[in-house]
Design goal:
Distance between the termini: 30 Å
Radius of gyration: 29 Å
Strand content: 5-15%
Number of strands: 8
Number of domains: 2
Order of helices and strands: HHHHEHEHEHEHEEEHE
Structural class: alpha+beta
Strand order of the largest sheet: 1-7-6-5-2-3-4-8
Length: 315
């Protein structure tokens, strides 16, 4: 699982921890109020009953406990928002900045209210529960801030389009490296029916010169451009990346899927782009533009699941 997914899961489970605390607090306060109210009713209906000091103190604290209960209801609503929003953040692979903001603000309000309850009202409950819930809330706040800044950084570095001038192939490679590949991150996915030895060479140059932080490279291509020379070059490059703990895998589409593919795509963990063929990516007069990320990713993963590994091509 990618780092973003792990962080989202941590936020989700930490939010559940705060929800359990809110439920426990409501339950215990309600129990105390109920006991106090019941004792008060019994005592008032029978003049012969002597109310001991503990019950008397509980009766005096009922208004205070009722106020604490009202605040704990707000606490409960905040934790519900955190759990739902963090769950939606997990389901939505390209979540916007609104989710980290909603989760972070809710978690911060939760922390302030929970501390207010613990310090302002007389209510005995296990300190460990409060400590764990506070740690959970703090984790949610910190990771939400981290996610928000990550999304801002990605958006700041996202390109709109790149114009390739076929008369400047060398300059185009620099432009592609600086303006596109240097902004990629995570898992890089490529769909290119024209991918061949020259495409592999251009990919290696762009990845090397861009100094990007990528974890893996996945390429979907057509069989008709794959030959013996390419296999050797592919294995060499794959082993080179493996030595750097980077996964490189290539799959070949079946004939029917390959015929239907007319677009070439470059996808990372946040954005998708329409691109020229990699073997002429620096020579074809064509714009590189953003496209719908969700649709591109779903389409790529569908084709990836139906394709055959390059290593198994001859089987």
């Amino acid at each position: 699982m990618e780092r973003k997914g792990v962080i989202s899961l941590i936020i989700f489970f930490a939010s559940i921890l705060t929800l359990l605390y809110a439920i426990y607090y409501i339950q215990q306060l309600s129990l105390n109020i109920g006991i106090g109210a019941g004792a008060g009713i019994v005592a008032s209906s029978n003049a012969n009953i002597i109310v001991n000091v503990t019950i008397a103190q509980l009766l005096n604290n009922i208004p205070t406990l009722q106020l604490a209960l009202s605040i704990s209801y707000i606490l409960f609503v905040l934790t519900i928002i955190m759990v739902i929003a963090s769950g939606l953040q997990i389901l939505n692979k390209r979540s916007g900045i609104e989710w980290p903001i909603i989760i972070g603000i809710s978690a911060l309000a939760y922390l302030l209210l929970s501390i207010l309850l613990e310090t302002s009202f007389i209510f005995a409950e296990p300190y460990l529960i409060f400590s764990l819930s506070t740690i959970g809330g703090a984790i949610v706040v910190l990771l939400s801030i981290y996610n928000a800044f990550g999304i801002i950084r990605i958006r700041h570095h996202t390109i709109r389009n790149i114009r390739i001038d076929p008369s400047k192939p060398y300059t185009n490679m620099i432009k592609l490296s600086d303006e596109l590949f240097s902004k990629l991150s995570g898992d890089i996915k490529i769909l290119d029916m024209h991918f061949d030895s020259l495409g592999l060479k251009n990919l290696a140059i762009l990845l090397e010169n861009s100094n990007i932080s990528y974890l893996s490279v996945y390429v979907l291509a057509n069989e008709d451009r794959i030959g013996g020379r390419f296999i050797k070059e592919y294995n060499d490059f794959k082993n080179e990346l493996k030595n750097r703990n980077i996964i490189f895998e290539m799959r070949i589409l079946n004939e029917n899927d390959a015929i239907q593919q007319h677009e070439r795509l470059l996808i990372d963990n946040s954005n998708a782009y329409k691109i020229p063929p990699f073997n002429i990516i620096n020579r074809k007069s064509e714009h590189i533009v953003r496209t719908n990320y969700k649709d591109a990713l779903i389409g790529f993963e569908y084709l990836w699941g139906r394709a055959k590994k390059l290593e198994n091509l001859k089987e």
